[in-house]
Amino acid sequence: MLHGSSGTELDMVPLAGRLAPGSMAVALRGAVPWEAGFAFFRRFEDRSIDERDLLARADVLAGEVVRIGKNYRFPRPPVAIGFSNGAIMAAALLMLYPRCLSGAVLFRPLSPFAVAPDTRLSRVPALLVDGDNDERRLRGDGAGLAQRLAHMGADVAHHVLPTGHSITEDDIGPDARMVEAAARPGRKWIEPRRERVGNPAWAFPLRCTIGTLISMRSIEVS
Questions:
Q1: Which distant-in-sequence residues (6+ apart) come within 8 Å of 76 by Cβ?
Q2: What is the pTM of this model?
Q3: DSSP letters along the chain, please?
Q4: CA angle 187, 8, 192 (to 5 degrees)
Q5: 100-146, pLDDT tens digit by residue?
Q6: Each residue of 43-66: pLDDT tens digit?
Q7: Domain ranges of the chain
Q8: Who contacts 123 (Cβ-Cβ below 8 Å, separation ≥6)?
Q9: Is domain 9-221 annotated with CATH 3.40.50.1820?
Q10: How many Cα atoms within 13 Å fall on the side-chain side of residue 167?
Q11: Distance, C-alpha 216 to centroid of its chain
């Protein structure tokens, strides 16, 4: 679970309970202080994505996803569920390290990279959900990312809802079905290929909340 800009890991916990009740969930906090909360990567002053920063942080996060999954004996890679800033990071993980994930649900995303990585996604399921009245996205941002992921080989579904940037009740139904489908047995853990960009040591320790959706607890990931 990857929160939006100015958020924390606790923002996504109620959503996890709606999408996958009774499942194990890991809600991560971004490492970049941002306004009153945190983000998963830096932006420039014009709000464009700092792709070098995003690449470095995605590299570290991919390794942590595998480490957490193995430590807690997850039977298969997780489904990444991201909102806004977290959806962009989840899309970057899917593009760069597809074997780390069983699928992705992306609320209000946009393309993380100006040029898509040369990666094959082998029908990894990805659901993108846009708001038709989203004041923080340009019309076509989500559709453009959906086209890129489909071109890379993902099994893509793209929905546009009559809403704004925030997640609403209308978002829940199709997302819950996608999470259930992506979580079926099939994909196995494979270590991510580590090609570091710069020095990402500052990206962690990362705070996360992990546990069943009935009893969540916080741990420090370092």
A1: 102, 183, 185, 186, 187, 188, 189
A2: 0.84
A3: -B--TTB-GGGGHHHHHHHSTTSEEEEEPPSEEETTEEESS-B-TTS-B-HHHHHHHHHHHHHHHHHHHHHTT-SSPPEEEEETHHHHHHHHHHHH-GGG-SEEEEES---S-SS--S---TT-EEEEEEETT-TTS-TTHHHHHHHHHHHTT-EEEEEEESS-SS--GGGHHHHHHHHHHHTSBTB---PPP----S-GGGG-SEEEEEEESSSEEEEEE-
A4: 30
A5: 999 999 999 999 999 999 999 989 999 999 999 999 999 999 999 99
A6: 999 999 999 999 999 999 999 899
A7: 9-221
A8: 153, 154, 155
A9: yes
A10: 26
A11: 19
Whose tokens are 């679970």? That residue is 1
Q: Which amino acid is at 100?
A: C
Residue found under tokens 């830096």: 42
First to last CA, the chain: 18
Residue in the block written with tokens 């590299």: 59
Cα separation, 97 vs 144, whole angstroms: 20
- How far from chain centre, in Å, is Cα 39? 12
The token duo for 144 is 């453009």
- The two tokens of residue 120 are 């094959």
Look up tokens 């996608």; give the residue.
178
